């Protein structure tokens, strides 16, 4: 009882040991609940088999200049375009100030001839048009996303429309002149 | 007031232990209701009935549906072709979704017109907006289940909305998907949640009803009942009115189910989902078109905020703003009947929402972009500027002194004749 009085007097705000016990118990319970909740939240993240994704190897030899192919990597389409000299020139000539998401063409390619980008619009995940010959390629000769009207240039950079970022460049490596490994 | 069955000994035995009979008597039979409710007050109970229809047909459909990317589309086609009456049950369920939204939208606009959100019904209104949000989540996930092209690409576009969240956006999207694209894990969890959400809605509806019965329904005049002469018992007066409305609704509904079952649908969704081909024109279900138009109306960055982020915030904001309506509208007069300017602006808002829906259904090009931007601006201006402003500049017309007065004549006092309906119900 003496302790109780001491504590009370010591704080001078009417706080007691019991208040401390309430808070400590509450904090312990809250932290415990949060930890117990985590498995229920984290079970929704990609499972081990989903994460254990093979990389994709692509044979580039059949692709002619000016042609594009689409390959699947992590369930997403990857655009591989063997660019023409004109397309490379256009991509390199753009002033960085004109770009919503400034990146030089050199930062986005390992060999200027080959552009490799994830073919998923950075706006809301549609697949832009421009891979097939008859497709609308947009105002900048690259790709055009029909969902909400985003235009990408020949380096896969966003030029016009609601998409905030350039088409992402995946990790890739040239295993030889005609073989590339994505991922 | 006591119903004849209350004399039954078994009923009384049960009621003494579980007061279900007296509860029913109080809330469904005697429940005093304004005597002047119009047919615009039918849509609440109608929505409740459609919710039950959706749950019943949904449970039955789940007995035949397979939530797997390889089998989902085929299992739905099997329901349509092989399962006994599967076509009927599925068409009731798909059209029921559209009907549910039509009814709820009418219910919401009824509330906006007659000021149903004003004191003391603010929480009633907020619960209603929560129901709307739950319905939207349920409908969105349900639309993904048939795993057609629109299912897949609708899911892709909508889940990608969350990538607009700064810094953690991509983490959230991967978490929602359970992978790196919309795929089998996504389909599985959507099925699980699509089954759960209707029961969450039932729970919120129960709260909505408790809040409603606390102060009772509003009414077209927007004034409080002055006494018992202004109210009549719910049964038989409004049970019969609701039943009549239900019959009218079911007639129209059956017309769609049997004669135009795909009227609200998108032909593209009868093509199995293909993750490598985006349809040329992705449109959500019709009831999401206005929000979709708002999402797409932002085509420009503002300072450091990307167009995408602003579009997403405005899209969610267009619904969240409804939570604030009870405090944005400061006018003490509830019913638009007595608010000459608000009445007109209400109809402008209705037209604005229809325009947004029309824009949302068209490609985001040319004139549609401009119209969408103007309509979006007006939508927010209605709530954030016009609504608060009107409270100060509008002179309301004089209110009647009581609900009974225009019907019964005389003053708001309790004339003997007015009490007769109450007595008849005894």
Offer a concise description of the structure.
The complex is a heterodimer of chains A (183) and B (426). Chain A has 183 residues and is an alpha+beta fold.
Features of the shown structure:
heterodimer; A: 183 residues; 3-stranded antiparallel beta sheet; 5 helices; 9 strands; 29% helix; B: 426 residues; mainly alpha; two-stranded antiparallel ribbon; 16 helices
Shape of chain B: globular
Number of DSSP helical runs of chain A? 5
Overall morphology of chain A: elongated
What distance separates the N and C termini of chain B? 5 Å
Strand neighbour order, sheet with most strands of chain B: 1-2
Radius of gyration of chain A: 28 Å
Give the overall average pLDDT of chain B: 91
- What strand order characterises the main sheet of chain A? 1-9-8
Q: Report the structural category of chain B.
A: mainly alpha
- Helicity level of chain B, as a percent range? 55-70%
Distance linking N and C termini of chain A:
69 Å
Total beta strand runs of chain B: 2
The biggest sheet of chain A amounts to: 3 strands, antiparallel
Commentary on this structure:
Chain A is of the alpha+beta class and 183 residues long. Helices cover 29% and strands 23% of the residues of chain A. Chain A has 5 helices and 9 strands; from the N terminus they run αααβββααββββββ. In chain A, the strands form 3 sheets. Chain A has a 3-stranded antiparallel sheet with strand order 1-9-8, with no helix packed on it. Chain A has a 3-stranded antiparallel sheet with strand order 2-3-4, with no helix packed on it. The mean pLDDT of chain A is 84. Chain B contains 16 helices and 2 strands. In chain B, strands 1-2 form a two-stranded antiparallel ribbon. The chains are: A alpha+beta (183), B mainly alpha (426). Chain A binds chain B through residues 44-47, 50, 53, 70, 72, 74-77, 100, 123-129, 146-149, 161-164, and chain B through 153, 156-161, 163, 174-181, 183, 185, 189, 275-278, 280-282, 296, 298-299, 301, 306-309, 311, 363-365.
């Amino acid at each position: 009882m003496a302790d109780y009085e001491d504590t009370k007097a010591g704080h001078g705000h009417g706080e007691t040991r019991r208040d401390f016990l309430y808070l400590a118990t509450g904090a312990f319970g809250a932290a415990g609940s949060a930890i117990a909740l985590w498995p229920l939240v984290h079970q929704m993240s990609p499972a081990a088999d989903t994460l254990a994704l093979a990389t994709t190897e692509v044979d580039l030899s059949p692709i002619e200049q000016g042609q594009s192919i689409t390959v699947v990597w992590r369930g997403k389409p990857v655009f591989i375009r063997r660019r023409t000299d004109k397309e490379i020139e256009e991509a390199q000539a753009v002033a960085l100030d004109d770009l919503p998401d400034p990146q030089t063409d050199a930062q986005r390619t390992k060999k200027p001839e080959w552009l490799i980008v994830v073919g998923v619009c950075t706006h809301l995940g549609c697949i832009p048009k421009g891979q097939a010959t008859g497709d609308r390629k947009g105002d900048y000769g690259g790709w055009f996303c029909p969902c909400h009207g985003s235009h990408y240039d020949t380096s896969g950079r966003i030029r016009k429309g609601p998409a905030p970022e350039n088409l992402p460049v995946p990790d890739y490596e040239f295993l030889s002149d005609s073989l590339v490994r994505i991922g | 007031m006591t119903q004849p069955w209350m004399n039954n000994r078994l009923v009384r035995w049960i009621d003494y232990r579980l007061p279900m009979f007296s509860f029913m008597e109080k809330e469904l039979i005697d429940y005093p209701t304004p005597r002047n409710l119009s047919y615009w007050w039918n849509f609440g109970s109608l929505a409740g009935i459609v919710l039950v229809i959706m749950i019943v047909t949904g449970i039955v459909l789940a007995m035949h549906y397979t939530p797997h990317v390889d089998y989902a589309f085929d299992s739905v086609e099997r329901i349509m072709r092989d399962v006994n009456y599967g076509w009927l049950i599925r068409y009731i369920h798909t059209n029921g979704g559209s009907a549910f939204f039509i009814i709820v939208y009418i219910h919401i606009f009824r509330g906006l017109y007659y000021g149903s959100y004003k004191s003391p019904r603010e929480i009633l209104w907020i619960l209603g907006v929560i129901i709307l949000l739950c319905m939207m989540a349920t409908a969105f996930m349900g639309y993904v289940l048939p795993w057609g092209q629109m299912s897949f690409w609708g899911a892709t576009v909508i889940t990608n909305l969350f990538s607009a969240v700064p810094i953690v956006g991509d983490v959230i999207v991967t978490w929602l998907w359970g992978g790196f694209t919309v795929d089998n894990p996504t389909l599985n969890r959507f099925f699980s949640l699509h089954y759960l959400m209707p029961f969450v809605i039932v729970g919120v509806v129960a709260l909505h009803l408790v809040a409603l019965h606390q102060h009772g329904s509003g009414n077209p005049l927007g004034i409080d009942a002055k006494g018992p002469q202004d109210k009549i018992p719910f049964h038989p007066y409004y049970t019969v009115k609701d039943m009549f409305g239900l019959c009218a609704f079911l007639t129209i509904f059956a017309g769609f189910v049997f004669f135009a079952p795909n009227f609200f649908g998108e032909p593209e969704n009868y093509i199995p989902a293909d993750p490598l081909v985006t349809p040329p024109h992705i449109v959500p279900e019709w009831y999401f078109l206005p929000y979709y138009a708002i999402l797409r109306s932002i085509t420009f960055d503002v300072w450091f905020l990307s167009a995408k982020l602003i579009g997403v915030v405005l899209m969610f904001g267009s619904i969240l703003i409804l939570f604030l309506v009870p405090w944005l509208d400061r006018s003490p007069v509830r019913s638009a009947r007595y608010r000459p300017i608000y009445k007109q602006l209400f109809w402008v808002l209705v037209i604005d929402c229809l325009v947004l829906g029309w824009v949302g259904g068209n490609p985001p090009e040319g004139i549609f972009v401009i119209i969408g931007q103007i309509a979006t601006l007006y939508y927010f201006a209605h709530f954030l500027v016009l609504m608060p402003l009107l409270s100060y500049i509008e002179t309301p017309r004089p209110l009647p002194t009581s609900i009974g007065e225009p019907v019964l004549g005389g003053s708001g006092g309790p004339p003997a004749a007015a009490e007769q309906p109450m007595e008849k119900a005894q």
